[in-house]
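I have been asked to look over a protein record a colleague put together. This is what I was given:
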Amino acid sequence: MKNILVGVCGGIAAYKSANIISKFKKKGYNVKVIMTKNATEIITPLTLETLSRNKVVIDMWDKNRGYEVEHISLAEWADIVLIAPATYNIIGKIAGGIADDMLSTVVSACTKPKYIALAMNVNMYNNPILHENIQKLKKYNYNFIDADEGFLACNANAKGRLKDEDEIVEIIENALNDENKDLLKGKKILITAGRTEEPIDPVRYLSNNSSGQMGYALANQAVKMGASVTLVSGPTNLPIPKGLCEFVQTRTAMDMYNAVMERFDSQDIGIACAAVADYKPKFYSEQKIKKADDDLVIVLDRNPDILFNMGQKKSHQILVGFAAETENIIENANKKLIKKNLDMIVANNAHNMRSSNNSATFIKKDGTSIDIPEKTKIQLAVDILKEISKL
């Protein structure tokens, strides 16, 4: 679990730091915060302490900090430093070698990657002194997240607005994952995700609780690791991952089966993460079924087993499946591993389908297994893909 140190300066965009910190925490990162004294005039330390679940550091001379030299310990603790928002003032300080508060002191002592997200008045943004300082700091490997155009607090529609929080989080995540960026370079990966829906009539269908989070996390992380990713997805409420080779929207199990079988031969890796309905109604009513006095009987037919057919069809591919079980999880996963000719199976509790977190056991066809403690599905996706790269 990576450590992110967030510096918050006294620009009006300081209130957005709360959202950035919240997003990092939801993704499972450890977050600590340093605020300048001016930043506390815009957003309270208590807000950021609540979101980061760590004490916010402000004062260089805090008598309750213990015996550690805090600016050194924070600099060593961090895997990456993000200053958001970064004001004209803090950039001038860092460029001038000034360390007169906790944030500037920690930055001066930190050897880890540093990212500075600009946010200020347009005239300050256009000041040539700022751009000289930025160019100077770039020579020393400081990274800058440029400001966007938008409506500013000074009532101008111009450049100087803090970049969208989601984009900032993505930039920092990509920087943290640099060690994995070429892990799957050149590999073609087909991933199934989400649930399937089997229509009964025009307004009703059979389905399940899958949110698609795990499959979409795998697709996102595989792209970041350099893979060419085809995502075949049933219905979800999730945004389509960026950078995909192909996104295929399906609804029913038969739709998904056809999409997968059409593409699987050309892939290097198949990951079947979708929660596919085993059965579908034998008869579909073209009109809405009306309520009657008697019970309604729905006769079900078997759907094709997508993963089983992938296992029968595979030649050179690595094939990974999931076993979401409510009981005898490992025993049932082992049976599925053998029956479906898999190289690895991810066994997990079906009750975590709609949760953002999960724990799992990776079981390989050679009989070895790895227990993964509970973590976010994004972090679990990284672990799964790393294990696949070893296969």
Remarks:
- The domain at 182-390 is CATH 3.40.50.10300 (Rossmann fold).
- The chain has 13 helices and 19 strands.
- The radius of gyration is 25 Å.
- The first strand starts at residue 3 and ends at 8.
